[in-house]
Amino acid sequence: MVEGFIGKVSASSPLQHRLTKGELRELFVTNLLSPFLTKQFDRPGIIINQKEEQSNQTDIIIYDNRILPPFIKEHNIGVYPAESVVGVIEVKTNLSKKALLDAEASAKRLHEKIYNPKSNIYKHDIQRPHCAIIAFNDSRPRFLMSNEEGKRWLEANCSHIHFVCLVRKFSWIYLKNGWVFSERIENYEETKRFIAVFLDNLRTLSELRLQYLSQFVHRDWLSIYIRDQNLFEENSNSIITPSEAPPE
What we know:
The protein contains six helices and nine strands; from the N terminus they run H-H-E-E-E-E-E-H-H-E-H-E-E-E-H. The strands form two sheets. It has a six-stranded mixed β-sheet with strand order 2-5-6-7-8-9, with helices on both faces. Strands 1-4-3 form a three-stranded mixed β-sheet, with no helix packed on it. By secondary structure, the protein is an alpha/beta fold. It has helices spanning 2-12, 18-33, 97-114, 124-127, 147-157, 189-213; strands at residues 45-48, 60-63, 72-74, 77-81, 85-92, 130-135, 163-166, 170-175, 178-183.
C-alpha cells in the first residue's frame, strides 16, 4: 500500500500547477490512511470551538463522528467542532525549516487558542489533537538527518508537532521518552512507522474522550455553540449540572 502511495506521489511530480499537485498529494495521503480508519473518521477544513475561534485551514483533519459530526461538509472540505477532532496533518512538498516552523506555529495556535481549557470540555491530557506533518521532497534536510542534532532541533523548536515524516527518507515521532528517529532501511519502514504510531495514537485519544464523556448522564452539545442567539438563559446553558459531575 505504501509503495503504491509513493508511486502515485512520484507520478504527480511533473505537474506544474502547484495547487493541483498539492490537492492530489493530500488526497493520496487520505486514501492511504482511510482503510485503517473506521467510518467515524474523515478529513480537511477548519476547526472551530464554542467561542467561534477558528483554526488555520488545515490540509487533513481527522475527527470522530461519534462525538459530534461536522457542521459543514461539502466536496471534501468542512467546518469541524473542536470536540470531535483527534488529529491534523499538514502535507508539504518540501520538508524545510520554514515548513516545519509554519506547521508548528499552526499547531501552537490550534492547541493554545482553539483548545484553550476555557473553551474546551475535556481534561487537559486528552483535549489536544495530535499534529503531524508529512512531506515528499527527495532533498534531505541535514538538520534532521542526524539523530542527536535532529533531536536537539526538534526539542528546541517543535513542542506541538509530534509526528514528522519525509517519505522514503526518515520519520521523527515524539514518544514518552522524547523524540525517536527512524531512517529508511528497506520497505519504507520510516513511513510505515509514522502511519502506524500516528493512527494508534488517534484511536487511543478517541477512546479516551469517549470514556471521559461516558461519565456524564447528559451533555448539551449544540446549545454551547448558539449562546449568542439568546435561546437559553445564561445559567441554564452550562455543559453539565453539579449532580452529573464525576467525582474528583
